[in-house]
Design brief:
With 643 residues, this protein is α+β, with helices and mostly antiparallel strands. The protein contains 24 helices and 23 strands. The two termini are 34 Å apart.
Length: 643
């Protein structure tokens, strides 16, 4: 069934396609819809081991757990800059130049020695500069975390350093607070949580008791308490950092240069050895001698190897990066230009990349005589605080609809208003119309609103209504039902509004052009499979969308298997995309394709995309991406979409 993740959390029993005036708060989150449920099950089991009373942990117990589990910090996986700098003076090409420099020094050929030294330093500094251009994704993750938390220990609330939190600590979360660890929410009001730093999505989700809220997110509204479930490397952020830190691949451009250098060095070494031997033995009596022959061999060896090749290629690609910048694409790693040109597979995120990342009204369905689109929209708008700024995405969508007559709303007097309740999954309002008549309006999840209608109305439209709801569920389209009850009468279903995050206008053409160039485009999304299939079908990408349960997984610190391509590559190649995936799934999909010999590009915008962006041959951060996603990417787009 198609359920928003928030509904699963708040109610635990929703039917497709249950949508209400808050549904888009959970829509399109770049993680599986069942991720929250899976996280809750794990967290609920974990809670049994937390052993935390109402007064929180004692200082002694907190100190013991801190010693046992470590500080609530991400591991520092950065390589010192001096080591990065020195790495550019090791290897085949730098080693060859250094040997030539030593020989020229022994022969006191100072001009040649100076020239070779200048080339060595130039190559080293160019390589080091390229490394410094690339962002540090782990550092970006750490910078996004806030250092303080409200924690209750020994019965007293106090402000504490978030790095000192341990599993079982009781913490308070209020509007504006940053979540300092993965926290299992306790009893209290529903809170709106902004997960943009994690997923790149702009819409908050509504979470309540039993939900697991992740480190790095922000509380938008509401207040509650919770218990720290995971800290440090065991958090969502920590696992992401571990995946990023496990990626140390050499770029394809460097591999090509290395192969050319090795081939030329082997061939040149054979010729130079023969030449030096011949000169030493044959012309010794004519004044050449061994050392002049060696000097000649060193010059010949250096001349036969393209020492300045990397400098020339870098300069050429720098010119290309300027052209790309004019097209709103910022190059973070110059070598990615060459790899982008050879890309064979593009794994694309769906929300905000292929789609608009906003719900758009698709159609208005009428179930009452005389109820046209404008009348149904007007009733839906009357079940809002239309004189106040919209409180959520669907209210915004309804109130800004083109066919809505906003002037007619002001002719009504709102006598009572019940805002959205996640448990009831509906919004209600009592109004007095221009004729003085009083009536109620309800809007919310289709099955909920249908149950509120009187028996006669349910009997007349129930079968047709249920069939339409099921059809929408299969297509992954959200729906919002609207009903009206006159004073003293029964509730009657008036209509249903349908919503979808549609593809961008230029996306289909962009994908067609990519396919014409031999690039296979696959959709990798955390959204529900039905929505992914509907979007892929609309874009002409095919509808073979796989599920996450068919993909491998990896734990933090585990080495990536070298058999991924053999075991899963064929299945991944045949699929048009995958839905309901976790961050590690994206990472392993990219690695499996690379092991199959593909040059893989990956697009993304959230923290959960950062490992795959780092692993891909070409990581592409789309417009509006988080700092971590941009730092892990090779190419950063500054305008929406892929075109």
């Amino acid at each position: 069934s198609l359920c928003s993740r928030r509904k699963i959390v708040a109610v635990g029993m929703c039917k497709p396609p249950l949508l209400d005036n808050q549904a888009t708060h959970a829509d399109e989150a770049d993680e599986p819809e069942d991720l929250q449920t899976a996280s809750e099950d794990s967290a609920l089991k974990h809670r049994l081991d937390l052993q935390t009373g109402e007064d929180g942990l004692s200082e002694e117990e907190a100190a013991r757990r801190l010693l046992q589990h470590g500080r609530n910090e991400l591991p520092d996986l950065r390589t010192p800059k001096w080591r990065i700098f020195l790495s550019h003076f090791t290897g085949i090409m730098p080693g060859t130049i250094i040997i030539a420099i030593i020989i020229e020094g022994l022969l006191q050929e100072w001009p040649d020695m100076s020239t070779l030294t200048a080339l060595l330093l130039l190559n080293g500094f160019v390589g080091f500069f390229e490394d410094m251009r690339a962002g540090d994704a782990v550092a970006a993750l750490k910078a996004s975390l806030k250092p303080e938390a409200q924690v209750k220990r020994a019965g007293a609330w106090r402000k504490a350093d978030a790095s000192q939190l341990v599993s079982g600590d009781r913490v308070a979360l209020a509007a504006g607070a940053n979540v300092p660890a993965d926290i299992l929410l306790g009893r209290g009001m529903q809170v709106q949580v902004d997960q943009a730093a994690l997923t790149g999505e702009s819409l908050p989700v509504s979470l309540g008791e039993g939900s697991l809220v992740k480190m790095g997110s922000t509380i938008v509204s509401g207040e509650t308490e919770g218990l720290v479930a995971h800290t440090g490397v065991n958090t969502f952020f920590g696992k992401t950092a571990a995946l990023i830190g496990s990626t140390h691949d050499v770029g394809n451009f460097q591999k090509v240069i290395l192969r050319i250098t090795r081939a030329l060095l082997l061939f040149s070494s054979l010729l130079v050895t023969a030449a030096v031997t011949y000169l030493s033995l044959t012309f010794d009596g004519e004044g050449y001698g061994v050392w002049p022959a060696v000097s000649f061999g060193a010059v010949l060896l250096v001349a036969s190897i393209p020492i300045a090749m990397q400098v020339v290629c870098t300069a050429t690609m720098a010119l290309g990066s300027r052209l790309l910048a004019a097209k709103k694409a910022i190059v973070a790693r110059l070598a990615s230009i060459e790899q982008l040109a050879g890309m064979t597979v593009l794994c694309s995120d769906k929300t905000g990349t292929l789609t608009l990342n906003k719900m758009v009204l698709q159609e208005v369905l009428s179930y009452a005589k005389g109820a046209d689109d404008a009348a149904i929209l007007a009733l839906a708008a009357l079940a809002t605080r239309w004189k106040e700024p919209p409180k959520d995405a669907l209210d915004t969508l309804v109130l800004r609809a083109e066919c809505l007559d906003t002037a007619s709303l002001d002719r009504h007097e709102q006598l009572d208003f019940t805002p959205f309740d996640p448990k009831l999954r509906r919004t209600e309002a009592t109004l007095r119309g221009p004729d003085g008549g009083v009536f109620d309006v309800v809007k919310g999840a289709p099955d909920v609103v249908l149950r509120l209608c009187d028996e006669a109305n349910r009997s007349s439209i129930g079968a047709v209504f249920a069939a339409k709801v099921e059809e929408l569920a299969q297509r992954g389209i959200r729906a919002l039902a609207v009903a009206r009850r006159p004073e003293g009468g029964g509730m009657e279903m008036v209509g249903m509004l349908t919503f979808l995050d549609p593809p961008r206008p230029d996306t289909k053409r962009t994908i067609e052009r990519a396919m014409q160039q031999g690039v296979v485009v696959k959709m990798i999304t955390g959204d529900h499979g039905a929505i992914a299939r509907e979007t892929a079908r609309a874009l002409g990408m095919g509808d073979e969308i796989g599920a996450s349960d068919s993909l491998p997984t990896i734990l933090p610190g585990e080495e990536v298997p070298r058999t991924l391509g053999r075991d899963y590559g064929a299945m991944i190649e045949k699929s048009d995309g995958f839905a309901q995936v976790f961050p590690e799934h994206k990472f392993l999909i990219v690695e499996a394709l690379r092991q199959r010999g593909h040059s893989v590009g990956m697009t993304g915008d959230g923290v959960n995309d950062a490992p795959a962006l780092k692993k891909a041959d070409v990581g592409i951060a789309v417009e509006g991406a988080t700092d971590a996603a941009r730092a892990a990417s090779d190419l950063v787009l500054t305008e929406p979409g892929l075109s």
